[in-house]
UniProtKB/TrEMBL annotation:
Substrate binds at T22, G23, R57, E80, C81, D82, Y83. InterPro entries: His_Pase_superF_clade-1, His_PPase_superfam, Phosphoglycerate_Mutase. This is Histidine phosphatase family protein. Keywords: Hydrolase. The keyword Hydrolase applies. The keyword Transmembrane does not apply. Pfam families: His_Phos_1 (PF00300). One of its GO terms (cellular component) is cytosol. GO terms for biological process: negative regulation of glycolytic process; regulation of pentose-phosphate shunt. One of its GO terms (molecular function) is fructose-2,6-bisphosphate 2-phosphatase activity. It comes from Nonomuraea deserti. It comes from the Bacteria. SUPFAM superfamilies: Phosphoglycerate mutase-like. The active site is at H10 (tele-phosphohistidine intermediate), E80 (proton donor/acceptor).
Amino acid sequence: MAVRLIYETHSTTVDNETGIATGWLPGELSALGRTQAVELGARRRKVDVVYSSDLRRSVQTAGIAFGDGKEIRLDRRLRECDYGIYNGRPVSEVAALRSRHIDTPWPGGQSYRQVVAETAVFLRDVMGEWQGRTVLVVAHTANLWALRNLLHGTSLEDLVGPFEWQPGWEFELV
């Protein structure tokens, strides 16, 4: 039996609104982000379990959306790519360097390929536990790229560009 996996990015943060690439810093939801989290909860009521990155912005999103009794499991394997010394730098600066860090870790951080490896282990564990169920993941841009690389075969080189938000992506794990 397959697992239906729904991926949602964390809601809008203060850093998103001010053009900061948060990376492994905790981040904080903005007023808009809190409203988006409420909308997420209404949109995705029928999931069996919620997994969230353990970074504060994702924890806040999941808590606001599903904190009324839905099981929420925090998982550090769902963290954004660690930009190392570039955590907290302007998005424009980080975006210009992304393609250099597909296989080479950011100084003091990790590579996008390392995020893919963490995601692959996460998916294996989800497959083992949630056959025939619906799993929702609240995480970050790098995690979506990892899912699309692992499940659709899209190259990381083609993925590490501009991010276009939408209300979730759905995948079938078989």
